[in-house]
Design a protein that fits this description.
single chain, 178 residues, mainly alpha, 6 helices
Length: 178
């Protein structure tokens, strides 16, 4: 296997794994307040899964980005990690990934600072994860080479659909008491 093929495979696998971890994190986060997953286990179990996958996406995302920086086709530069939409190859798709990563990092960092922040400020910042997920979803559709695979497409679209249903349930029926 050539180095170029290896970096491409690592970027794909790490990207899909990071998307999966973030999807589970968002689904369990919404489920904590909508009681939809009560049949699955206690709130403590769902919260543990939410917190674990919230941290899990970071090394997977870093591996995805690192592999793309080594990929000769993508040609992602360190500047592209800070300033979106500059990369010459797939500028829109990779730029959306950059924005998504930045917003998810903001949500993760403020999540760690939750006890030092006003509750309302933390809640609004935490809700940015929906925006970040939307950016990530479009990034995966535009840049993901595996979205054409029926299994990957089914998982990607069903996860986005479940997130939309859970979010709608939370908006309609409100937040359950903690």
């Amino acid at each position: 296997m050539s180095f170029e093929l290896l970096t491409w495979v690592v970027a794909r696998v790490a990207g899909l794994a990071a998307l999966t971890a973030l999807s589970i994190s968002l689904l369990t986060g919404v489920a904590l307040r909508t009681a939809v997953l009560d049949w699955l286990g206690s709130n403590r179990m769902v919260r543990s899964l939410h917190e674990y996958t919230t941290v899990l996406w970071m090394p997977l995302g870093a591996l995805h980005i690192g592999a793309l920086m080594l990929d000769q086709t993508a040609r992602v530069r360190p500047l592209d990690l800070v300033v979106p939409f500059l990369v010459p190859y797939g500028g829109l798709a990779i730029g959306l990934g950059t924005l998504s990563c930045q917003v998810f990092l903001l949500v993760a960092i403020t999540g760690l600072m939750r006890r030092r922040m006003e509750t309302q400020a933390w809640q609004w910042l935490h809700r940015l994860s929906y925006v970040a997920y939307g950016l990530l979803f479009v990034h995966s559709l535009l840049a993901g080479s595996d979205v054409g695979d029926p299994v990957v497409a089914a998982l990607t679209w069903s996860t986005a659909g479940m997130l939309a249903v859970l979010t709608a349930a939370r908006v309609i029926w409100g937040r359950l008491p903690a």
